[in-house]
Amino acid sequence: MTGYEPIYQLGLGKDFSRLQPELQEYFSLAPGSGRYGVGEGVFDVVGCRQRWLRPLIRLASGEQAFFPEYGEGISFRIENHAHLDPFGRPSLTARREIFFPETTRVFSDTTSLDSSTGTPRLVDYVGRYRRLVTDLNLSVTPEGRLRGISEVSRLFLGPLRIPLPGILDAKAYAEQWWEPAEGRHRIQVKVIQPQFGLVLVYAGHFDYRLEPYPAGAGTPGHLPAPALPTRWERRV
Predict the structure, then answer these.
(1) Strands (E), 48-194
(2) Average pLDDT for residues 11-20, to the nearest whole number?
């Protein structure tokens, strides 16, 4: 026992128990547990399908949030780290490496539990600078799958907090589940922007395991150097 509950369990409440058992295990990492998660698999499809949009996305590829490549049958690796962020919020940081033939792209985010309004909610900070934050709307399907929709987004530029209007905001629609016929996890995500349409998609399968941190590295506030963002953001 770590004294901290998994943030997805707090975010879903009683619905957490309706998840498939394999998903409950996947989302049960808690700060100070001494372990982190490793997933390795293949994306059937990943990236930006619209060729005309790729040059624009390339301008933001250094953010570790979007990338201009598109491929099929692309290997990837994800690491999940449960920790307390510098402001004491229980968080889960995910770092994904996507191994395109010509380059490796990193896609990273930190999901944190925000209790500032009195009702716990999950907010997702995206990219290496954590400049984009969205509210997560989570639900469990009748089959026990996890569904997530990103709601209202905000952009942080220095001291500015800029709510994105609906006409500019991109929404992410995600679904993750355990596929018993294959004996592995599956995930599919679509990011849709009203003006540009589908700007990012990834869907595929992966195997998942828990690994121990090196001795002395599993404290609640620990986050390995490769998973650290360039900056942290406490605003929501």
Answers:
(1) 70-84, 90-99, 104-114, 121-126, 132-140, 146-157, 160-163, 171-179, 184-193
(2) 96
In this structure, are residues 236 and 87 in contact, taking their beta carbons and an 8 Å threshold?
no
DSSP string, 33-90: SSEEEEEEEEEEEEE---GGGHHHHHTTGGGSS--S-EEEEEEEEEEEEEEE-TTS-E
**pLDDT at position 122, please?**
96
**pTM for this entry:** 0.94
Chain-centroid distance of CA 81 in Å reads 11
pLDDT in tens, 124-160: 999 999 999 999 999 999 999 999 999 889 999 999 9
Do residues 51 and 69 lie in contact, with contact meaning Cβ atoms separated by under 8 Å?
no
Q: Under a CB-based contact definition with an 8 Å cutoff, are residues 20 and 147 in contact?
A: no
d(CA 42, CA 96): 12
- Is residue 119 exposed (0-12), middle (13-18) or buried (19+ Cβ within 10 Å)? exposed
Distance of alpha carbon 47 from alpha carbon 102, whole angstroms: 13
Query: With b meaning 16 or more CB within 10 Å and e meaning fewer, what string describes 10-28?
Result: bbbeeebebbbebbbebbb
Give Cα 137 to chain centroid, integer Å: 13
Residue-level length of the chain: 236
Pairing of the two strands 35-47 and 90-99 = unpaired
